[in-house]
Each structure stands twice: as structure tokens, then as C-alpha cells.
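Q: What does the assembled structure look like for these inputs?
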Amino acid sequence: MKIYWIHAQAPLRVLALIKHLGVEAELIRIDPVTGGLHTPEYKALNPNRKAPTMVDGDVTLFESSAIMAHICIKAGSDMWPTENLAEQVEVLRWLTWNEGHWVGAVGPYYIEHIVKKTFNMGPPDAAVLEKSAKNFVKYAKVLEAHLADKDFVAADRLTIADFSLASMARYWREAEMPLADFPNITRWLARLEQVPAWKNPWPEEDAA
Ligand SMILES: N[C@@H](CCC(=O)N[C@@H](CS)C(=O)NCC(=O)O)C(=O)O
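A:
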């Protein structure tokens, strides 16, 4: 199995899962700054020109959720439930909620404070952050209420939904996300940090 990755939050989920499950994979780092996502070879694998991308035999996949589900099935891991279909639906619900709502809520903070700094794109735009606050609070309230009586997002255990939802939010302090008033969320994020592969998801040669 080959995983094409860049140092960013969607590939992070897949790399953490691979490490957590001990799956053997060739991890191929791409440099987005020098056009690595735009080569004809890469575009043939992922026409979105984004990372991650997985190639496993005849199967080529983009979208980190689908890649994570594939890896779990292959590794026999119930982090993507395949026996209890009610659990599978619950995990799917939170993966969908992540893409549909949570990414849009936390994304502006992550982009303004972390992505811009990483790629020397200038200072955070205060107007963007101010405009984002209402949406952030709206969806943080949903997750906060959901986590009131839970250690994990779905199925009462660690699943790929946790990895998806936490991949930007894990940087909440550095990204200045206003999460201090959401103790269930911050406790859940701290709990995930106790998972070694989540705490240090990057390949060994790039542990920074
Ligand atoms: N929904 C996609 C998101 C993929 C995505 O947006 N990847 C970003 C990194 S988090 C990327 O490749 N950005 C590089 C670029 O847009 O040039 C997934 O979950 O895989």
C-alpha cells in the first residue's frame, strides 16, 4: 500500500491510523510548495490535486475517510465498524458532519493561524476570524453536548470519526480556536493525545 501525504491535517488522520494499527505502507511525502500535487502522475491518482491519496493494488482512493475505512477493513479493525451496522451508521454520521459542518467551523482558525504561518502567507486576517466566530460556536455547541456523556465520538470507543473530527481541532490553542468554554471537547482532545500514534502521527523521519 502506498500513501501520498503532505504535512497537513487530512493526511495526518491517515498517517495516525496507519501507525496506530501497525499497517505496513510506503509513505510518500509530496512537497506542495514545489508543485508536487500538480504533476501529471499525481493528477492521474488524485484529480483534486490534494492529499492524501492511497494506492493499494488495483484500488486508488482519495478522501481521507474512505482511505481510513479501507485501511480498517484491510487490517480487521473495528475503528470502522463492519459487524455492527448501527455503529457504522453512527461513525458515518460524524464523518459526514465533519466534512459538512465542523471543517467549516474550525477551518478558518486553522488556516489563519497555522496554514498561513507554515507557508509564509502573511498574518491572520482578523476580519475572517471575526466572521467565523458565530459558526464556530454553533457547531462547537453541538459537539460539546454530544460529548457530555461520552469519551469518544461514536460507538463508545476510538473510531476513525475521532481522528477526523480532531485533526484540525487538536491545534486549538495554537490556532486560537475559542474552545476554552467547551470542556467536553477539550477533555476529548486531551484523551486522544494519550493515543501514542495520535500524539505523534508523522513518519519517524518527520516527527516534528
Ligand atoms: N476532504 C479531503 C480533503 C483533502 C485536502 O483538502 N487536503 C489538503 C490538506 S489538508 C491539501 O491537499 N491541500 C493542498 C492544496 O490544496 O494545495 C480529505 O479528507 O482527504
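The chain has two domains: 2-77, 85-197.
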